Amino acid sequence: MTGETTKLGFICVQNAGRSQMSTAFAERERERRGLEDEVEIVTGGTHPADSVHDEVVETMAEIGMDLADRQPREISTPALNECDVVATMGCSTLELEADVEVRDWALPDPDGQDQERVREIREQVEARVSALFDEWFGPAE
């Protein structure tokens, strides 16, 4: 790294499930790797929900990650354009007009799913976030 901040974006339609899980895992990964001063994390949705999905809050709490107080928010194209890479969650209705590297992770939507399915999605999200950090910053030590 050259001392510049790397901005990672995690975006979906409602910002109430997959992108919230991704953000939480990215924050943990950033801390684990000592990159707090080098990585900025951006999250949002094109049509934010009123709150993070209950099943997501419950499933993340199982592994000690509290999302209960997180609030879905809207993301703007200018905010996305400031990112180095944006991960979308597989939202086919999400069309980014941003001029930025976009990765579509094609993850299933946890909204309304049973806890076992949400756990599976959580594991996929965690693996994707870890792989993204490995790609951008090298393997964790």
From TrEMBL:
Keywords: Arsenical resistance. SUPFAM superfamilies: Phosphotyrosine protein phosphatases I. InterPro entries: Ptyr_pPase, Ptyr_pPase_sf. This is ArsC protein. SMART domains: LMWPc (SM00226). The keyword DNA repair does not apply. It comes from Halorhabdus tiamatea SARL4B. GO terms for biological process: response to arsenic-containing substance. The keyword Calcium does not apply. Residues 6-135 form the Phosphotyrosine protein phosphatase I domain. Signal peptide: none annotated. It comes from the Archaea. Pfam families: LMWPc.
